[in-house]
Amino acid sequence: MAIAPAASHESASLPLLDFTAGQVCRAADGWHAVLHIGSVEHRIWSKQPLSAGARYAAELPFDRDFEARAHAATRLWRALNGRAPGPDFHRLSKQRRERLCAALRAVAAYFDGATYRSIAEALFGEKRIPDRAWKTHDLRSRIIRLVQSGLAFVRGGYRRLLRPERRDE
């Protein structure tokens, strides 16, 4: 989130917390800081050096990331006011996280030369794998889909986690 020194509306801005040397660093594009407020980490950026006790305002460009930036600004504002920051903007469900983990494990085994059957045994246990009819078993199809998902993820699909699909409302 970009911040700038507050202009004439002093009452509309809040002072940021004191910065320690390890939380602020200078880069070619400006100043970057990490604020730890409660259990939440807030990352901010400024064109100008940051100073403790100064008042700042958030700058939110109207771009494709506006919704995420506005959410981050709200979370920071709530934390600075001693309120609970609220939910993360984009959080994967437990089911989606488990599927991604299984897909990554499956594709790692696939890259190591494992068969679909041995991958299924590793992920689901030998008891769930039938001695016969493996070619038509639903777990075989599931393993193939997991490997395909893992391959897509490794080939760049992970970027969708970093920039989630936008809700068109």
**Strand residue content:** 15-25%
Mean pLDDT: 81
Strand order of the largest sheet: 2-6-1-5-4-3
Q: Strand-and-helix sequence, N→C?
A: EEEEEEHHHHH
Class from helix and strand fractions: alpha+beta
Low-confidence stretches: none
> Which word captures the global form?
elongated
> Tally the helices: what do you get?
5
Terminal Cα span: 24 Å
Summed up:
The protein has 169 residues and is an alpha+beta fold. Helix content is 39%, strand content 18%.
Describe the structure.
The chain is elongated, with a radius of gyration of 23 Å. The chain folds into 2 domains: 2-80, no CATH class; 94-162. α2 crosses α4 and α3 (116-124) crosses α4 (138-157). A hairpin with a 2-residue loop joins β4 (30-37) and β5. The protein has helices spanning 66-80, 94-111, 116-124, 138-157, 159-162; strands at 2-5, 14-15, 24-27, 30-37, 40-46, 55-59. It has 5 helices and 6 strands, in the order ββββββααααα. The chain is α+β, with helices and mostly antiparallel strands and 169 residues long. It has a 6-stranded mixed sheet.
